[in-house]
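Q: How would the C-alpha cells look for this protein?
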Amino acid sequence: MPFAYYARLSPDRQAVYRKSDAIGAVELPAGTAVAAPVAAIGALLVAGDRVRLQRATQSLVDALVAGFAVPPIELRVLAVRPSDLDGELHGLYEPDEDRAVARITVWMRTAQRKQVVAFRSYVRTVVHEFAHHLDYEHFKLPETFHTEGFYRRESSLANALFAAAGAPVRAAGPPIG
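A: Here is the predicted structure in C-alpha cell form.
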C-alpha cells in the first residue's frame, strides 16, 4: 500500500515509486568486512569522539561501497543535530549531482539535550542514507523514495550489520529520514 504522498506524484514518478517498493530486502554482500567498523562506532559514540567516529563511520561506508560495488561516498559526522518545529534532522544524503562524489551527513548528538545518539539509531541512520545511494547507484532508480520497499531494504541491511558485529538484531523502529 503506497504512502499518502504517492497520489500527489506524477505518473512517471509513481512508476519509480512502484519499482522502488517492489525491491525488498537486500543482503550484505559476502565478504563485506563490517564487524570492526560497527564495533568501533559503538565505542566511539560512548566516548563522544567525533573525529574518530567519523573515521570509523567512513570505514563502514567504504566497506559497504566496496561490497555493493557502487561509487564512493564522502561521509561527515557533525556534532549536534539541526532542528526546527518539525523535529530533528538525523541524516542527509546528497547525491553527486553538484559534487565530485555523493555525501552522507549524520549528527552524533541530539538537538534538545545534546546527548550522544544511541548506537542502534546512529547505525540505522547511516544505513538509511546509504540506502538512498543504493537506490541511485545499485538499483539505478532515477529518484529515491521512502517506500515500504525502501524501509525493508534499510532494515535488512541494518540487521545484517548488527548481526555481523555480534549485536542483537531487533525489529526496526519507526522510519527515520
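The beta strands are 73-80, 83-84, 87-88, 91-94, 102-109.

The longest strand covers residues 73-80.

Upvote if useful.
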